[in-house]
Specification:
Largest sheet: none
Distance between the termini: 32 Å
Number of strands: 0
Shape: flat
Strand content: under 5%
Structural class: mainly alpha
C-alpha cells in the first residue's frame, strides 16, 4: 500500500499540517537523491492562478476567469 504522506511517520503523525512536512521532505529527496519532481511548472502556475482567483473572487464577490488550463 502506498502512503499518501510517506514521510509522516512516528511522532510526525501528531503535528499539525502534516502536508507541509511532506512537501519539505520531498524537496530534500529530490535534491539529495536527484529524484525528479512529480509536479510540473505548468501545474504550479495553474495552482497559483486558482489561489489568486479565489482571493480576487472573495474580495469582489464576483466569479473570476482562470488564465491557465
Amino acid at each position: 500500500m502506498t502512503r499518501l504522506l510517506p514521510h509522516v511517520v512516528g511522532p510526525h503523525r501528531e503535528i499539525g499540517e502534516q502536508h507541509v512536512l511532506e512537501d519539505v521532505m520531498q524537496l530534500v529527496d529530490w535534491v539529495r537523491e536527484g529524484k525528479p519532481t512529480i509536479v510540473t511548472a505548468e501545474h504550479a502556475r495553474h495552482v497559483s492562478d486558482i489561489i489568486g482567483s479565489a482571493y480576487r473572487s472573495a474580495g469582489t464577490a464576483r466569479t473570476q476567469d482562470l488564465t491557465t488550463f
